[in-house]
Hints:
By secondary structure, the chain is an alpha+beta fold. It has two domains: 2-124, Phosphorylase Kinase, domain 1 (2-Layer Sandwich); 129-299, Aminoglycoside 3'-phosphotransferase, Chain: A, domain 2, CATH 3.90.1200. The protein is 48% helix and 15% strand. α7 crosses α12 and α11 (260-268) crosses α13 (287-299). The longest helix has 19 residues, at 46-64. The model is unreliable at 1-7 (pLDDT under 50).
Amino acid sequence: MASMAQTDSSSVISAIRASRPARGIEQPLLHLLWCPWTSLWLSLPVPFRRMVYHSLWWAGKRIYGRGSFFTQHAPFGLFLKRTDPAILRSGSLANIFVAANTTIPVPTILDFVDDGEYSMVLMTQLPGESVRQPILDGIITEEYFESTMRDWLIQLRDLPIPDPQRVSSFDGGQCLSFRVHKDPFGPFPDIASFHRRLLRMCPAADGQRLENEVVHKSYDKSHRILFTHGDIHVHNILAHNGHISGLVDWDCAGWYPEYWDYAVAIYHIRRHPFWVGCFSRIFPQYEDELEIEKAIWDVHCPW
């Protein structure tokens, strides 16, 4: 595990250096403290940097209140996250990739360190909170939300793919999808193998019934592999001063069948007409795929 964590850390550090993260830092004090010293700081020993980040985590709890076991707001416009090394590595690399190749506002990844059982990433904190309340209050209109999400998803789906067959995380490893399971699974050599995994989640009788009755409507179609956020949810879309300000949490991002972002978005919030209507208009071509997904949801809960 130690050697793997070292590999995880070094690959992300290399991507951070190549991405020139100073361009994404807008908070003036953070820009002053970080930008002139980025290369020097990343060259310091990991134990020292980790100690500093633990201190920032502690300070963040005192100033902003406790976050979760995995995340914490920190001083100077920073945000800390820790989780499984492979998951955090892939999510960090996906975040850097999106920042470099789209206009979607995402956090700027500043550092990545091994932290024992977990890894820890330091990033900037985007302005705003979950888009949920501004939607409920009517501050974010349906037209504006749909237009923004359509633009962002088109940009993601236009990104170059490394393998037109393989279903995997961004870096080619195990998939992570809370629609499927709380733990990583896969990867898969092709979409058919991925679909078989979805059916195996169902009780045997239900899986066979779905395969006989409705699966062919979707699974027999030809689907492209596309870059996918993988966790489109109100808590991962931020709003600030009446504007949609960012898309966060790229740990589930990867290379999935083209309908997957639509299916996951509806899975998370399937009864709110604002949400369902927006994504159904963005993806009107995937109604058969959604029908299969709903049939699976009726007989399987990943939690």
